[in-house]
Design a protein that fits this description.
The chain has helices at 11-17, 25-32, 40-52, 55-78, 96-103, 116-119, 122-125, 144-151, 175-187, 205-215, 227-232, and strands at 82-86, 108-113, 133-138, 162-166, 194-200, 238-239, 245-246, 266-272. With 274 residues, the protein is an alpha/beta fold. Strand 4, helix 9 and strand 5 (194-200) form a beta-alpha-beta unit.
Amino acid sequence: MSDSNSQLVDAADIRARIDTSKPHSARFWNYFVGGKDNYEVDREIGDQIKEIFPGLVDVAVASRAFLGRAVTYLAGEVGIRQFLDIGTGLPTADNTHQVAQRVAPDSRIVYVDNDPIVLAHANALLTSTPEGRTAYLDADLYDPDSVLEAAAGTLDLSQPVGLMILNTLGHVADYDQARGLVDRLMAGLPSGSHLVISDSTATSEGMIAASNAYNSSGAVPYYVRSVEEIAGFFEGLDLVEPGVVQVTAWRAEEGDPANPTNPVDAYCGVGRKP
C-alpha cells in the first residue's frame, strides 16, 4: 500500500532536475553499498576515493547496518511505531520501513528528501504492510517547520517518533546551523521521541583526504566533523547506551557479517527526549 498524501513531483519534472554530469552523494553511497542506482560519474569518484581511502566502503556498509539495529531497537524494545527519516537516500535492502514493519507491522514511516534522483526512486520506497503506512515527502531539511507540518499528515505528532538523520547532516556546512535544524525538529516532537544520527567523522587522515577529494569533484560538499560535534547534536537528550560511539560498536552482536570488523570513521548515537 502507498500513502496517497505523499508530496511527489511529476516524473518529467524529476527527470529535468537530475544532473548526471556531477557525482551525487546518494548515488555515490548507493555504489558503495552495492546498489545499481548510480552513474559512471559516481563510480569514477567512488573508485578514486577507494584508492585514497578504502575504508570509506566499510563506513557505508557499517552505517547501513547501524540503521537496522537502531530501528529494530526503537520498534522492539522501546515500542515506537512512527519514524521520520530525513535525507533517506536511495532505496537498498532493509530500508527503515522494512525493518520497522518487520518488528511491528503497524509502524508508520515518513521519508523526507528533496533530491530529484531520490524522488525518482520514491515509488520503490512507497510500500507498506496493510496495517502500517509509508509516505514520501518532497521536502527540505532546511525548513524543519514545513517538514513537521507535512509529516503530520501521516504521523501522529502527539505520540513518540523516531527521528532518523543518517549521513545527511554533513551536507550542512555550518555546524551551528546543523545543530539548530536538529533542535527545531526535536522541538516539534513529544517526550519519548528518539533522535538517531550517524555521520562520517574527521577521525583519520584517510577520511579527511576522501572528504576533500569528494568535495573537489563538483558534487554538493559533505563536511566530516569531530566526534565531539556529533555528540553535541544530542545535547538535552538522554543518550541510550552505549552513547556516541563508532557505528560498528552500537549494540552490535559479535561476528555480525553485516558489520565490518575494522574501526570506521563514522560515529552514531541514539537519544531520548525527556
